[in-house]
Write the structure tokens for this entry.
Amino acid sequence: MGKIHFGINMEFVRHADKNFEWGVRKAAELGYEYVEPMVHWGRELLSEAGYFHSVSMLDDPLRVKRACAAAGIALSGFSTHTPLCKPEISTEYLKQAIRFAAECGAPVVNTDEGPKPAWTTAAEDHTLMRYTLMEAAKVAEPRGILIGIEPHQQYSRSPEGLDRIVKLVKSPAIGVNFDTGNSYLCGHDPYKWLARVVGRLVHLHAKDIAVEQSDAERGKVTGTPVGCACGDGVIDWPRVIRICRRARRDVVFSVECGTIAQAERSIAHLRKLL
């Protein structure tokens, strides 16, 4: 049975205008055991200037490993969302992210399928996704890296749609990064959906949804970047924990919220439940 740990996605410092190392130290200061950084290709102004948390994969991977070691925190995985339906973008990005993760010591890379090209059919999109995932799996398997497919876009917005993507390639490297908030906003029962995929769970985005957002958006969107503090919204966290205890592997709840204050409230709430 799975043991549960608490981590945080680096989006919690998005509005703090600080760099990656600062965000890692803040996560550790708040009491998180794990952190989920976001990585990007090339160079971009805000990260290079030290005003944003994302890390370029042109940097030395040991930058990430050393920052986590200095703060006494581990990596739950990487946020490597890339449109699987667009292999000209996603194939090489995801393969590089897997190699980067292996050198850093991050066990999981998380992604989803969209947005899709405007001109392709659903059948064509699934062929394109199969190509991307096959190429990624061949890089991930020998390195022991897992690929977490997240419910977040046009095809993964339903349990059947997510299942179809996960089964496109038969590989032990491919599993599910379940998102409690996205699954709820899609209009489904997040607990039944989580129970359906718990055997393939490799990572979990612990995202709560405010009542106001639920009233305004449920059933109308496929997901949302971040949620409110865990415990401030509609998600039944004791029920999520009970389901995840049935997982085959240990599971990190990577909190996805938008501010440092929300991150602080989230860890306080989740800790009480364990």
The chain has one domain: 4-273.
